Automatic annotation (TrEMBL):
Principal location: nucleus
Family stated for the protein in its record: Belongs to the FRG1 family.
Name of this chain's protein: FRG1-like family-domain-containing protein
UniProt KW keywords: Nucleus
Superkingdom: Eukaryota
Organism: Phycomyces blakesleeanus
Key word Cell membrane present: no
Subcellular location: Nucleus, Nucleolus
InterPro entries listed in its UniProt record: Actin-crosslinking, FRG1
Pfam family, one: FRG1
Length: 237
């Protein structure tokens, strides 16, 4: 492998890549929009959210933020699957009010700081607590302003978001591990619990217990316990 190939490989492993799933929105993020000219979200030192010009977005396969002001950190709200918050380098949250004004100066999380992203064919759309979508609005005299008062999703409401490659790989690995754990238990059930006309007698325990047992190194023991419980329940009926 020559030096150019090593550089490309390092960039893909440690650089920024296109986010394409909700799980990719957890961690450092770089928000862009393919407007003319392209822009990226930038929070200045006074916590003002700006649509900063981003030259050559289309020409760069893996655009990256140039300064920390252009990075927002995404977090999924506890107990939800599609509600997120986005925090700036100043630890202030992205928010929008009922008039569609978007700011990044809130110190605490409330309804106005919650966003519901959805995937589109071209990127992501972000809906606020009022049911309105984040958008890029061209202003008189040139330039763009970020608002959140659109009723529907179109070009102006679709953003390209980039995440760090290491976080994207981590999310995919955790998802794969979760799938493998469930499949292994199902295979165990099929193998050892074939009574009852071929029906599968699955346990009622939360799947989190199985995941926890695997992390603690007692996965086989947990499977055996679950099998014995189902067998005991069967003979007690």
């Amino acid at each position: 492998m020559d030096s150019e190939e090593r550089t490309t490989s390092s960039t893909l492993e440690n650089g920024w890549v296109r986010a394409d799933a909700l799980d990719d929105l957890v961690g450092p993020l770089f928000f862009t929009h393919p407007s003319d000219p392209p822009i990226c979200f930038t929070v200045d030192d006074n916590d003002r959210l700006l649509a900063y010009p981003l030259p050559s977005l289309a020409e760069t396969p893996h655009p990256e933020p140039l300064i920390v002001n252009q990075v927002l950190v995404g977090s999924r709200l506890l107990g939800t699957s599609n509600s997120f918050t986005f925090k700036s380098f100043n630890s202030k949250y992205l928010s929008s009010d009922k008039f569609g004004v978007v700011e990044c100066n809130r110190e605490a999380i409330g309804g106005t700081e919650e966003w519901e992203p959805t995937t589109t064919e071209a990127g992501f759309a972000f809906k606020n607590a009022m049911g309105k979508f984040l958008m890029i609005d061209e202003i008189a005299g040139g330039g763009f302003k970020i608002r959140a008062d659109s009723e529907e999703v179109g070009f102006c409401e679709t953003f390209r978001v980039y995440c760090q490659a290491r976080f994207k790989r981590k999310n995919k690995f955790e998802k794969k591990e979760k799938t493998n754990s469930g499949k292994l238990e199902l295979d165990n059930v099929k193998k050892y619990q074939s009574w009852g006309g071929g029906k599968l007698h699955l346990t009622e325990e939360d799947s989190h217990q199985l995941k926890r047992a695997k992390q603690d190194g007692r996965f086989a023991e947990a499977l055996l316990d679950r099998r014995e419980k189902v067998k005991a329940d069967r003979y007690c009926k």
